[in-house]
Structures are given as structure tokens and as C-alpha cells.
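Researcher: Go.
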Amino acid sequence: MVRGSPIPLLLHRKIVQQYQNGVTQRNIAKTFKLSSTVHDIIKRFRESGTIAVHKGQGRKTLLDARDLRALKRHCTSNRNATVKEITEWAQEYFQKALSVNTIHCAIRRCQLKLYSAKRKPFLSKLHKLRRLHWARGLLKWNVAKQKTVLWSDESRFEFLYGTLERHVIRTRKDKDNPSCYQRSVQKPASLMSLQGQTLSKAAEYGPGFENLAE
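Model: Structure:
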């Protein structure tokens, strides 16, 4: 049997059965190619009368279930905080000596993970519907009306939704959560300068044009 692999329960029963039949531990170990494991199984059977392996208690965790819930609430409300910042908060909040590795493991126990924030700007169904109506309204413009609009490649657009952080703490299912998006900026709006008459009519229909700076 491979070293370190668990002993099947059926093999436990066979070892105990041969022990009850009067076979020595040395012969049992040779038969099943086991050494000290046979002695431990037989000793457990003589002391407890059972072959079931009791789960070890191990070291108790520093954060219990209540602490994990508080940690999860803090992470979801501060998704862009680093693990070091969360550790400093946890040390002050729980009044315990907690390391960065401990908090990192606790975050994973909360089913949270550090992901790269999406750069895609958030568009709700209402935004998409307004853009559709705006595009359909432009189909009715004649050539003379279209000439009143000055199109320039110097336009600057800025999507102000989200934060500037590149990483976010979230679950796998929260990838499309609006609070997990990264602010997407094409170019700073303050640098835009359009001369002449600039999309005067389109601003009435297109949502989001209020971010254009003159």
C-alpha cells in the first residue's frame, strides 16, 4: 500500500478479525504488508471496542463563524481593499493577532477571492433602450439637419461608473455585479475641446452626453 494513503474500512475489519482468531500482529503485518499501522488498529479496537477512526480535533481557528460573517460583510462593502488593509482592519476589529496569511485563508473560507475587475462599463436595460430610441430618432434627420452637427475625432468620453482599482474581492457569481466593475476611461473628459456647434441636437436624445465637456 502506498505510504500516507488512508486504510480502507474493510481492511480494518480484516485485521481485527485475524486478531480475534489468534493471529499475531507480526504475521498480520506481513500478510497485509503493513507495519505499525496494524498495532495502532488493534490498540484502538482494544481500548474503544470499535474500528472507527475518530476525527482529530486539531488546532482551533482564530476566527469563528460569527467572525467570518463580519469579515465577509467588510470585504463585500470594501471590495477594492487589499489583503493588508483588511488585515489591519481585522486586527483592530477582532482585537486578535492576525497575520496576512490568516486573513487570506479566512477570505477564501468566505467563498471570496481576489479577481481582476472588469473594465467593461455597466449598461442597464434602461440605458440600452434609451440608446435604441436615440438611434431610431436620428434616422428621421434629413441631410440639412445632419450638416448642423460637427463630428470631430477630438471627442473625449468618460465612463464614471465603478472605481479606479484594478482588483476586486468577490465571489465567482458576482462577476457581473455593478459594484465589481472598474472605471473605464477612454480619455479624460477635461481634455476635450470641440470648437463650433457640437452635437447640439444629439445631446437631447443621447443619455450619457452630460459628461461631455465643452
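Model: Confidence is low (pLDDT under 50) at residues 187-214.
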